[in-house]
Every structure is written in structure tokens, then in C-alpha cells.
Amino acid sequence: MSKDDPTPLPPVLFHILLSLAEGDRHGYALKREIAQRTGGKLNAGPGVLYGAINKMLELGLIQESGDRPDPHLDDQRRRYYRITPAGRKAARAETLRLRQLADLASATFGVPRRA
Amino acid sequence: MPDAPLSARLYRALLNLYPAAFREEYAQPMEQEYRAELASARGRLAVASLWFHTILDLARSVPAQLAAEAARDTRHALRLWRANPLHIAFTIAALSLAIGANTGIFSVVNALLFRSLPFQNAGRLAALEFFQPPHDTTSQFDAWRTRSSYLADTALYEDGDFNIGQERMARAHVSQTSANFFSLLGALPYLGRTFSPTDHDAAVLGYGLWQELFAGSPRILGSALRVNGQTVTIIGIAPPDFDFPNHTALWKTAVFTPGNNGWRTIARLKPGVTWPQARAAFSIEAPRLWPIRFNPADPHHSRIVPLRDQLAGPARKASLLLLLAVGLTLLIACANVANILLARTTGRAPELAIRSALGATRARLIQQILTECLLLAFVSALLGIAVAIWIAEMAPRWVPGPLAGQTYTILDIRVLFFAIALAVLSAVLFGLLPSLAAGYTHLFPARGAAGFRHSNRIRESLIALQVTLTVVLLAASVSVSSGFARLMHADRGFDTQSPITVSVSIQGTRADLKGSQIAYFEQVLARLRALTGVRSATATDFLPLSPTGFMGGPFRFDGRHPDRNSDFIPVFSDYFSTMGAHLVAGRDFTEADIRSNARVAVVNDEFIRQIAGTPDVLDHLVSIGSEAPWKIVGVVKSIDFLTEWFVGESDRGSPQIFVAPRNPGSFTSTFIVRVNGRAQNYVPVIRDTIRAVDPTVPVFSAETMQDRLDQAFARPRLYRAVSLLFAAFSVLLSLIGVYGMVSYAVAQRTREMGVRLALGATSLGARSLLLRESMLAVLIGLLCGTTIALATGRLLANLFEGVQPLGPAAYLLTAVLLSAIAAASIWSATRPLARLHVADILRAE
Q1: Are A75 and A84 contacting, i.e. CB atoms less than 8 angstroms apart?
Q2: Strand ranges (DSSP E) for B340-409?
Q3: Contact B65/A at CB under 8 A
Q4: At what angle do helices B85-113 and B413-437 cross, to 10 degrees?
Q5: Residues of B with CB below 8 A from A49's CB?
Q6: CB distance B463 to B737 below 8 Å
Q7: For A76, which residue in chain B has the nearest alpha carbon?
Q8: Same domain, B237 and B323
Q9: Domain A11-108 falls in which CATH fold?
Q10: pLDDT at residue number B402
Q11: Nearest CA in chain B to A47
């Protein structure tokens, strides 16, 4: 995983990008969304989550979009994150990589592609 | 948030585990998140589950973040090192040498001098020194040992070099022991069994000898072996690391004979008996059983000591000093590291100020410095281990022969850990402290000078400390070395250099047959004396420097009963002239004396002083028991035999009686030959001449007296080598320290010096100024060091064999030498000032 080509993206990073693609989120919202999306299978604790965020900031996949209160949660001021163009590019590359892998696996194991 | 629940406060505390940069960035949202989770957790189970996941999360992310941060800081540190490689090289050199040399030297010496005993519960084993229990028969000995109130068991042994085999004889160290010897020590056989009370003429082979003679064949058990002509049956093999006493290679069952007072006694204390109790009980029993050695003023009086102490002997005390030397050199090295790091941290003030201005917090900068120091310690520790291994591998080349034979574990892990821990501690402490103490981690003054004066004082104190410790070590080393020189050149009453000595052992050979012993010796002596270049030749069973046994007793002078024993030494003709001894009166033994077995004797000056009481002893008589008396025909100055128990100490104080031998060869006999020209050249021809007389007699240890002296003083020689190494090492470290301090001062004060030069000072003047200022610290160190060395000199003399406190001249010499070296080092460090141009400095401004 390098700055130029971050793929393969670790699952947590991919999920964060997926969430941020729909709009700015703060850390706790990301965590809850990811947990919900994966049925609780991927439940990142604060350490892992902010470790991932820190990494993504370094790689330039996301950026901070300032602190503001969260009206949905408890109106506490929280730090929000936004996906960058590099983040979108990385997410697309990861999607392609996963699809190619899935295609290969489908052909190999005889799983019909979803319509 | 003072009203936070305990659980949240705990989480906040745990967040401190993260590296500073991460914490600064994310601690707040992480805590927020935790509180949100906590708020939604209902019931104890949910809170417990939250904590379970939180701890899992911490365990996963903390190491990852720490590693990432350390990698960043390490890269940064390496970049900085590349910018100033010399400074760092000095530090690493000092630290790795300190770790390596100390660990290496200590491990080797430790292994040589204090091997752990391969015995069960060794702390309860005792040696009864200068004491003979009842031992005329086995039953007499058994009756005494089973009745003891304070000893669980007692065993006897007597050891010496014996001939083993029949056709081709080998020499080996053999002990004859009482049957309970192995069981008392708790040693189990490697193969077969050890002695039982019903065994006679049984032997246990040492592991090494078993490998050497029988290639480790287990079929050897039950077969016969000749030991000094006596046939014994091999019943067992000793474990590989068992060679007590004195590197014994074969143990055989003891034969008790009345009057043999050569036994050594070991015992195991009864359970619950303390050492003071045992000593008290022994001091009541001993005078009754063995009255002649019970005078506490006599250094050789009967006593009970821990076996461990007896085996370590004088080395035990020396070990303390060795540890002290290790500690001192480590301190010097740490002072060095402190100095260099102090200079670096101060020197990095501008860099840190810039980073601080760019938003780096205090914790972040401290973490960066800490990483750098740990990296330094780590690299030094790695190099140090390499140095230690190298020293341990080189050791057999430096270590004197008789000691080198021992097997020893290579590296002492405890010392290694200690040295590394100290290195890390000093690196961290002195890398970090200055920035904290001066309080400018938070706001580094980019060009301030206020902090520098403070840290200069610290650095000068460190230099003074280094010089102090170096003087102490150097003084110790010089006094150990001069003590060694004195030991080697002391007047021992005989020529310790040129006589050639060749040992033979006639036990169990044709020459040992009754009545043929004297003839054998006479025949060998006749052939030796006929050799060209040989001036005189003689033989004795008791050679000074390497006596393997001793005889003595309460000899009477003109029938008067003495209050002390005299040593009894049978010698062949021309003994005193060949040995280079000083005959004071009368004559040497002649061939006629030997052949006719004349009852004539030569006594020493101590016999005159302590027993005869009159210098007029010629033609008077000495006698013992009911034997026919000897007529005194000569007086000789005392000959120092250096008995094995007291190597290094003189035993010239004993009365000595020399007589013509009646049945020589019952111990190891040695021919002594004095030649014209270089003794070394004659050794082979003399050895071959002796061998030719009777090829069945083992001939060994053909060497000059000088060689034997070297072996006898192997231990003092080792002390000298080690103390010289430590001293040289400390001088080197101090040099590095002084050089480092001055070159740093030069760099710091370039601007000031430039101004001085601009105002008309010469570069020579500027350099002298720095020399004067720096020498002050050195001189203070010299003064302190000399004071401490003076105080500790006497301690040293008490602890080491042959060492005496140094005179003032030696201290003066040490001081002059050190200050000269320091001055030279300072002068060369100020060299950049000679090339200084005012214009360059101003341009740099």
C-alpha cells in the first residue's frame, strides 16, 4: 500500500470511503454505519478506527472538513471528514480489483453472476 | 470533565498508551466515542462487553501506532546522525565498548575464578582446613564421622598426579577418596555407580579421561586399570562437569594407613546447623583430635570453612574489586555518553525551536529525543555484544595456561543485561534530562546563550568525574602491576629463572622396586652431569613452586622438644648450588652422602631462629621419634616453597630441614639442572637423556624455573592483565570524553572566538584560553581521583595478593601522564580555531 497506489485497501479503509462517498461524516457515525452495513461483523473500536483515519489522512484519501455539532447524535462538536478525489480514485481501483477477483472466483467455483 | 464516570476516566488514562502525535490528534474524539458507547450500554453485561471490545481495540491499535511513530522518529534520527556522524560515532564507540568490554572481561574472569560447583546444595558443604580426623583405619574414621553432632557426613580425599596404564603410561590427576565421597557431594555417576563401603581397589573414571583413553566405550565398566602399579577395577564414570578436587580425572577408593597426614576433609552440615554453630562445635572438637594445628594466631590453624570459599580462595575478594572496576568503567562510559548527548541536545536547540514553532508539542519532541536515545543504546548494545563475544573468544589466548584449561560458559548474561540497562538508562537520562531541566523543551530559544552556560557546567563536572574515575582505575592498575612485578622478582632464596626442571614419576615402574630407587636417580644424575654444558644437576621430591605434597614434623634440636613443626625435605647432592640457594655456613650434600645414606642435614635460618635458638648449629643433631639423629652439616637461607595452598604468600617463615633421601620417588620427583648459556635450549636434550635411562618412567613438565614461576603466579598475572585492560579502556574513554567536550565548546564559541580574533587576539591565544578553561575540569578530576585512590590503596593491598599501596611518586606520575594526555587531546580539539577567519564567521552571521 503506497501513496500512489493504495490498493489493496484494507476492509476498514474501503468501508470508510464507501460511507464518506455519501457525504461528510464524523468518526463515530462512520463506525456505526460500518457496523450496520456489515451486520456487526466489522465493528471497529476507536483505536482501530482513528488509526485508519490517520492513515487515510496521510495517504490523502480523505481530508478534514472542520468541527461542527452533530444534530443527529447529541449536538456535541465533532470533527468531520470528507472524501478527496484521490480517495474516490482509490475506491474505484479497489472496486475494480474486487470485481476482477470475484469474476475469477465465480468462474472457478461456478457461482452465477447476479443479474 | 471532572464528573466523568470512573470507566471513562480509566479510558482517558489508557489513551496515554498511544504515541504523542496520535494522542494529540485523536484522544478527544476517541473519548467522545467511548462515552457515547458507554451511554448506550445498558446493564452490567453491556458495559463488560464494551470493555472487552475496548481492550481488544487497544491491543490491536496501540502497537501499530507505536511502531509507525517509532519508524518515523527513527528515520528522522538517522537523518540527523548523517548530518553529524563524528559525534554519534564517538557516542556509539564509547557505549558499545563499555557494554562489550565489561561484559566480556567480567564473564571470562568470572568463569575462570568462580565456576559454580556441580554439587547438590553446595552452600551446606564445608572444608575442614588444617585438620586430620581420626584416620588410621576405615573403621576408626567411620566411628568418628557417624558420631558427629553437627556434621551429617564427612569424607576424606588425597589427590596427586599418578601414572595410569601399563605399557604406555599416562599422567593424570588422581584422588583417593573415602567411600562416601560422591554421595556426600551429591554427585551421581554418568555411567555405572560410585563407591560403596565394601569396595576395594575400585575406581571411578573422569568423563574426559574416559573419552581420551577408552573413546567413551561403556564396555570399560568392570575392567581393570593400573594406577601407579596398583590394579583397580573401573566401576563408574563421573559426570562431564565433575572434576573436584583440582581437576581430578580418576577417583579410587582410599587406603587408610596410620601416619598419613595428607588427607583433606570435606563435610556436609547437619540439617538445621548454622555456620556459627558448626564453627563453635568444630573449635571444641578440633584441638582434641588434632592438637598441633590449634593456635588461632597461626595462619594455618584448624578451621571449618564453606567449601565454596575454599575453592574460590583469594579470588573471592578479588571478585568484588573486579565488579567495582566494571562499575567504574561503565560509569566513565555513561559520563561520556551523557556529555555527548548533553552537547547534542543543547546544540539542537535551534532545530527543536523551529519544530516547536511549527506546532510540535513538548511531549512530541520528548518522544522524538527519546527514540533517538533508545536507537543509540540499541545500536551500541548490538555492537557491544559483538565486542563481548570477541573478547570471550580471544580470552584463551591471554589467559594464563593453568587457568585456561577450565571450561567456562562464554557470556555472563546478567552482566550483559546490566550493562545494556545502564547504557539505555544513561542514554535516556542524559539525552532527555537537559531538555527538561533547562525547561526549554517548550520554547526553545533559537539563539539564546542562557541555557548553555548551565549545561557547560554540567559537562565540565562530567569530565571531572570521568577523570576522577580514571585516576582511581589507573592507580589500581599500576599498583596491581607493580605488585605483580614485585612478586615475580622477589628473592625467594633460590634462582627463579635459569634452572631447568624435569619431573618424573617412578611409581609402579621398574625403578620403583625396593632398593633400586636411589640407583635410578644416581644413574640419571650421572648421565646429566656428563652432558656438555651442564654445570650441576640434582633431584628432589619437593620442588619449590610446584610441591605436590609435604612432609614435616616436630623435629628436635639436640633432643629438645620443639613447640612447632619443621618441614622435612629430602634432596640429592649439589642441591643448593644447582638451585642457586645461599649457603650461609657449612656445605652442600655430596654424592658420597647420598650413596652411603649418611645421616646428615642442612637447616635453614628460620630453624636456627625458631628452634635451635643459637647460630652455632654445625655438628649438632636433629632428630624425630626414635629414628637415628641427623648431624647438621650446613645452614642455608630459607627457600620459599610456595605451597599450593598459599600461592603468592611466602612460607619462608617455616623451619626447614634438608636431608639425603632414603627412598626417593614416593612423590613426584624432579630433576634440576643448571647449564651454561640459555636454559631453554637445553630442555629437550635433558628430557631425552632422562627418558633414555628408563623408557618406562613417565617424564613430564620439562621446563625452566621461570616457566614454573609464571604458572605459579597465573592468577596475579590475570589480575594484572585485567586491571591493565580496564585502565587502558578508561583512559581511552576519558580521552574521547575530553575531546568531545572541547570540540563541542569550540563549535559553540566560534562566534565569541571570532570576536576575540577581530579584537586582536591571536588564534594561539584563543586556543590557550580554551586549554586553560578545560584543563581546570581535568585538574579538579585529578585531585579528586588521587584523593580517592589514596584512600582505597590500602583496601586494594588487603584484597589482592602481592599488591602494595602506591607511593606519592606513582600518583604524581599518574597525574602528570593523564594531564599530558588530556592537554594533548584538548589542544587537538581546538585545532579548528587555528583555521578560523573572522570574515567567515561574520558572513555566517
Answers
A1: no
A2: none
A3: yes
A4: 150
A5: 33
A6: yes
A7: B32
A8: no
A9: Arc Repressor Mutant, subunit A (1.10.10)
A10: 41
A11: B61
Q: Is A100 within 8 Å of chain B by CB? A: no
Instruction: Please give the C-alpha separations between residue B197 and each of B178, B249, B254, in angstroms, as whole numbers.
Output: 8, 21, 11
pLDDT, tens digit, 9 for 90 and up, residues B523-567? 999 999 999 999 999 999 888 876 555 677 888 999 888 888 888
Q: What is the mean pLDDT of residues A37-62?
A: 90
Per CB-CB distance under 8 Å, the chain B contacts of A46 are 26, 29-30, 33-34, 54, 57
Domain ranges, ordered by start, for chain A = 11-108
Kindly report the nearest CA distance between residue B51 and chain A, in angstroms. Answer: 11
Candidates A48, A53, A56, A57: best to mutate against B (most CBs of B within 10 A) is A48
Mean pLDDT of B613-636: 91
Nearest CA in chain A to B25: A54
The distance of Cα B541 from the centroid of its chain, to the nearest Å, equals 32
Provide CB contacts within 8 A for B232, sequence distance 6+. B201, B202, B203, B224, B225, B226, B252, B253
Q: Shortest CB distance from B57 goes to which of A27, A48, A54?
A: A48
Q: What is the pLDDT of residue B118?
A: 67
Give this prediction's pTM: 0.61
Q: Which residue in chain B has the smallest CA separation from A78?
A: B29
- Asked if residue B609 and residue B510 are part of one domain, the reply reads yes
Is B18 an interface residue toward A (CB < 8 Å)? yes
Q: A69: pLDDT confidence band, cut at 50, 70 and 90?
A: confident
Average pLDDT over every residue of B188-194: 91
Closest alpha carbon to B337 in B385, B372, B386, B382 = B372
* Contact present, B460 and B343 (Cβ < 8 Å): no
Tell whether the torsion through CA atoms of B601, B606, B612 and B617 is positive or negative.
positive
| Contact yes or no for A79 and B29 at CB 8 A | yes
Q: Which three cell numbers stand for residue B737?
A: 570524553
Place of cell 634452572: B499
Are residue B518 and residue B631 in the same domain, yes or no? yes
> Looking at the complex, does the CB of residue B7 fall below 8 Å from at least one CB of chain A?
no
Arithmetic mean of pLDDT over chain B: 80
pLDDT of residue B445: 45
Task: Tell me which of B56, B73, B90 is where a domain ends.
Answer: B73
pLDDT at B477: 79
Q: Report the DSSP beta bridge partners of residue A64.
A: A81
Closest among B142, B269, B252 to B205, alpha carbons compared = B252
Q: Which of A28, A31, A53, A78 to mutate to test the interface with B (most CBs of B within 10 A)?
A: A28
Q: In whole angstroms, what is the distance from residue B104 CA to residue B385 CA? A: 8
Range from B247-261, B283-297, B606-620 carrying the lowest mean pLDDT: B283-297
- CA dist B415 and B525 (Å) reads 54
Nearest residue in A to B56, CA atom:
A45
Chain B residues touching residue A28 (CB < 8 angstroms): 29, 32-33, 36
If one counts the domains in chain B, the total is: 4
Whether B209 and B203 have beta carbons less than 8 Å apart is answered as no
> Is B354 in the same domain as B429?
yes
In B282-366 the beta strands, taken as DSSP E runs, fall at 303-306
The C-alpha cell that represents B318 in the structure block: 578479588
Q: Chain A closest CA to B473's CA: distance in Å?
A: 53
Percent of chain B whose predicted confidence (pLDDT) is above 90:
18
State whether B32 and A43 contact (CB < 8 Å).
no
Considering the domain boundaries, does residue B127 fall inside one? Answer: no
Which helix (H) or strand (E) element contains residue B420?
helix B413-437
Count of A-B CB contacts under 8 Å: 58
Cell numbers standing for residue A45: 473500536
Q: Name the nearest CA neighbour of B189 among B157, B221, B215, B166.
A: B221
Q: Which of B25, B36, B58 sits opposite A47 (nearest CB)?
A: B58
Segments of B413-551 assigned E as strands: 500-504, 534-540
Q: What is the dihedral of CA B559, B561, B566, B570, to 10 degrees?
A: 30
